[in-house]
Structures are given as structure tokens and as C-alpha cells.
Amino acid sequence: MPNQFRVHAALFFVAVIYAANYSLSKDVMPLYMTPFGIVTLRVLGASSFFALVKYFVAPQDKIIGWTDNRRSILCGICGIGVNQLLFFSGLNLTSPISASLLQTIAPIVVVIASAILLSEKITLPRVLGIAVGAAGAASLILSRNAQAAIYPHATLGNLFILANATVFGLYLVLVQPLMRKYHAFTVLARVFLVGAIIAVPFGWRDALTAHYATFPLKIWLEIGYMVVFLTILAYLLNNWALKYASPALLGVYIYLQPVLAVLIAVALGKDHLTWGKAGQAVLIFVGVWLVSQKPKAAAVPAAAETV
């Protein structure tokens, strides 16, 4: 089992990847590609990659049994198909910072779903961590002015993002037992195949009719980023971390995304960093630390964890 530094490093890198996407995707949508067109490129590229790697790395590993197969289908629906369609539809209609802030609902879903589906213990430090992190995220949300003139359909976009965060939080819980039982590429190949079956019918026309010849290099690089980093690498690191971290810890790292999204926006000249936002960032980091504290009882049955 890797040390906690590697687990936290993987989760932090995923948070950076997601945070950068909020600004980069706005360059592509809707001028160069539609949200569904981007989703189609992402899921087709990722599903092909994972299927190919799985063929060479774990050719004999297969998901067996009705329970695991049903779970893998649900993961493909929640984590890939519906998740991606909702996310890019919402991001197309609302601001990057608003979208990143609204993702903070996912940890709440993760903790509740973990308690129900995985019997995950909800300790007082975790409850306090969720509360502190939520306070920091809520403070960030309330401190920003509405941009109704720029995003007239922001309310609808925000609803899409909220729904996206909910289904993604459910995915984080559902996929954990599969990742601990099967090879990572076996699971990812299956869930992306299911996700492609769901998403491609919505966006294949947009993907085929896009005017690729007019795309500048910057747009090509950003699309490549969304396929390689946002889809393949982020899902790999996320699912690897699920083997060694609780769903609650992984989910709460979503709290970091608003802070990172603001920092990236500042670096790109699209936002301003204030002392108030710095204080809100401290709240979020404290929340992440509190939720990362494992229950004392969980450290005793080491043999059970091995099994």
C-alpha cells in the first residue's frame, strides 16, 4: 500500500486538472464545438485507449457475476455518460468559477452514499471537515457577483452542474468495490464503453460536422488536454486513489477545485485574488485535512483490509 503522500498527491493533481478545465473549456465551447461534440470526442478517445491497454495489460481479467456487471453498468451511466453530458452542458451556460464552486455538493453525496452503500463510518472529524469545507465553498459562492449579462442562462447551467456533481459523487462510491476487486483498466474499459454507448448518440452529429480545418493550434491543444488529461489521466488517478482512500476523502478534494480554479483564472487575467478568497481557501484545506483523518477503529482489522 502506498504512503498517504502519494494518495494525496494523486488527488491534488486530479483537482488541478479539473480546475484548469473550467477555463480551458470555455475557449472551445460553443464557438468551435458544442458540449455534446466535446463529450463524444472525449468518451470515444478514452474508451478506445482503455480498451487497448486492457487488452495488453489484463487480457484475462473480466468482470463476472450479475452484481458486479450491474454495478459496472451503473458506474458507466453515472460516472461517464450522464455525468459528462450534464457537466459540459452546464459549463457551456454558466461561468467557470460558478461551475467549479457548485461541484462542492459531490462530497455530501459521497458521504451519504458511502454510509448507505458501503457502511462507511461517519465520524465527528469527518462531519466537522465537511462543514468547514462547505463553509469555505459557500463563502466563495456568496462572495461572487452574478454575471447575468454574460451568462443569461446561468441558472439552468447551474442546475446541470448540480446534477452532474450528484451523479459523480454516486459514481465515486459505486466504483470503489470494483476497483478493489478487478484491474483498474478492466473497470475503466467497461465503464467508458457503457458511457460511450450513452453519450455518443447525443453528440456524434456535432462531432462530425465541426469545422476542424479552422481550429487554431490553441484549440487543438485544449481539446487534447480534455481527452488526455481530463479524461484518461484524471480517471486513472481517481480510480487508483479509490483503492487506498475512502470515497469521502476523494470526494472532499473537490473542495479544492474552486480555489484552484480562481488561482488559474487569476494567472490567465480573468479574476482577482483577494484576502477574503485566501481565507476561504484556508477553510477548504482545513476541511480536507479533517476528512482525511481515518477512524481509529479502522486501523485495527488490518487483515480484513487485506482480504
Which word captures the global form?
globular
What do the pLDDT scores average to?
A: 79
Number of helices: 13
Label the structural class: mainly alpha
User: What is Rg?
Assistant: 19 Å
The helix/strand series, from N terminus to C terminus, equals HHHHHHHHHHHHH
State the total count of DSSP E strands: 0
Structural description of this entry:
By secondary structure, this protein is mainly alpha-helical. The protein has helices at residues 4-28, 35-57, 66-93, 96-102, 106-117, 124-143, 154-181, 184-209, 217-241, 247-252, 256-267, 275-291, 302-306.
Question: What brief labels describe this structure?
Answer:
307 residues; disordered C terminus; mainly alpha; 13 helices; 76% helix
Fold topology:
Layout: H1 4-28, H2 35-57, H3 66-93, H4 96-102, H5 106-117, H6 124-143, H7 154-181, H8 184-209, H9 217-241, H10 247-252, H11 256-267, H12 275-291, H13 302-306
Helix pairs in contact: 1-4, 1-9, 1-11, 2-3, 2-8, 2-9, 3-7, 3-8, 4-11, 5-7, 6-12
Membrane topology: Multi-pass membrane protein
Pfam families: EamA
Domain EamA: 10-140, 156-292
